[in-house]
Amino acid sequence: MLSIQNLNKTYPNGTQALNNVNLEIHKGMFGLLGPNGAGKSTLMRTIATLQIADTGTIDFDGIDVFNQPEELRKVLGYLPQDFGVYPKVSAEMMLNHIAKIKGIHSSNDRKAYVADLLNQVNLYKFRKRNLGDYSGGMRQRFGIAQALIGNPKLIIVDEPTAGLDPLERNRFHNLLSELGEEAVVILSTHIVDDVVNLCTNMAVFNDGQIVVQGHPQELSNSLNDKIYRKRIEKSEIEKYQSEYTVLSTYLRSGNMNVNIFSDVHPGDGFEVVNNNLEDFYFYSINQPQTV
Ligand SMILES: Nc1ncnc2c1ncn2[C@@H]1O[C@H](COP(=O)(O)OP(=O)(O)OP(=O)(O)O)[C@@H](O)[C@H]1O
């Protein structure tokens, strides 16, 4: 289990990126959902021992992350938001190199291990291709392969599906959910559907704070009969914003729609929308959104 207590981090420019963060995360897929700038990457980098917090503690299965970073790194797999690749090196060569660094010394063992990894992420037939010639999705799957070396018990993936086409995204999701059966997997994202599809538990993160946490389905159900939708004219958006608590405005089949929060049925042509994590998310970060 990963246990985070009273974590605070203020950057030298005065930005408070982590504000008394407390979280307990068990085996399985955990979604950390928050808007850009919420502090998700700061939290991920801190757990991954790449930076330290000003105050607080992180414990993973008895490892004190700030005092035993080397121990944590032995069980950590980390796919950062942006990672560079050597463009003229093949996936096979690169994984072989990383496996060597991670302590798999026999070249035969390494060869078998790397082949297995490449199969797992569905890249075996592209193993000789240079990383610079990989598509975005292939690069992400390569990123996961490198993160998996050494059978990590804690896997952190930071906004992994931005820029992937639906097929690649689907493949990537399948891979992540398999990993969640054996390890603690933290998925940091601003894509609500990724959390709906993959995660058994989640937290909404905003302004450096955990706003709410729980099971995605239960959280979205908590707003049942409180979210209402209506098709409107584009010119009416401001009117609705002044009259209602607007959660989102969005186009569907070319028509403008508005979703609002209301404790009682507002009448006025609105219809109820239930089980919608996206609206729960917008409600919990308390910002009107245009999607
Ligand atoms: N090295 C830094 N120095 C100063 N401010 C920083 C630094 N890194 C991040 N920040 C600021 O801290 C806040 C949190 O940033 P962070 O990257 O952790 O958020 P995020 O939720 O991952 O956002 P995104 O989804 O855009 O990556 C932002 O206001 C950001 O500008």
From TrEMBL:
Keyword Transport in annotation: yes
One MF term in the entry's GO annotations: ATP binding
SMART domains: AAA (SM00382)
UniProt cross-references to Gene3D superfamilies, sorted A to Z: P-loop containing nucleotide triphosphate hydrolases
UniProt keyword annotations, A-Z: ATP-binding, Nucleotide-binding, Transport
Pfam families in the cross-refs: ABC_tran
Keyword Cell division attached: no
Occurrences of domain ABC transporter (ranges): 2-232
Family membership noted in the UniProt record: Belongs to the ABC transporter superfamily.
Database matches in PANTHER family: ABC TRANSPORTER, ATP-BINDING PROTEIN
Protein name from the UniProt record: ABC transporter ATP-binding protein
